[in-house]
């Protein structure tokens, strides 16, 4: 029991994969084994098989009828796994099956660690030496070592491993954010910045921004995000900072190296029209915001640097 309590602190999570049609009983057994020992199983949600259509098993818990939608919703659980997350393939006698083969490919390129009950026999996937574990032994290893097994590469597999590793998507996400500033033409009016309150930051205030899309320039991504989230036309200005996510900042996606690139952004209007990502917003002088608002740590860090930069520029004049 002492070990079970300890593992919950480390928050191991997994997604189970396998042929529901052939091995559903074994999947249910391993689901129970893992959950009873403190490993969270994000998918599947355990219920009985309702129908099998074209070889695809549908569970009673499935809300969708389209197998493509069911499969994509299942795969989205891979993004929720976090730093101690993994995929476990239930493949007695080596059989993975068609759907699970597809899931294995997505898991691999998504940089999710994959482990197998048996070495796959119906799939040409590369499987390193330390990735095949019987569920009981695998659980015992995690309980005793409080970590997942590390890859072990055979000497004659080094070239194959490098080719396989080269396909994996990097485990980093780049986001852009903006200190959006508005300066009134009226005399004696202080410069104001825009902050938004959002559920994903625990109802704290943050800056407007979002992920950079593939092949998108940073400034283009920032202008796009501001338009989508606030309706404002903007012009990206000076670079403020680039930094990794602040440790223990409470960001809503765990287990991802999140890199923030923040810039000054200027707008000529304060007419904000929020989309669904934020619930409220405020315009106020930055020093007042730092003093009076509950601001999530990453945004506070950027706003403090912005204030120093603003004071330095003002002094230089």
TrEMBL record:
One of its GO terms (molecular function) is hydrolase activity. Its cofactor is Mg(2+). Coiled coil: none annotated. The keyword Hydrolase applies. Residues 171-311 form the Nudix hydrolase domain. Keywords: Hydrolase, Magnesium. InterPro entries: NUDIX_hydrolase-like_dom_sf, NUDIX_hydrolase_CS, NUDIX_hydrolase_dom. SUPFAM superfamilies: Nudix. It holds the Pfam family NUDIX. This is Nudix hydrolase domain-containing protein. The lineage of its organism: Bacteria, Candidatus Yanofskyibacteriota.
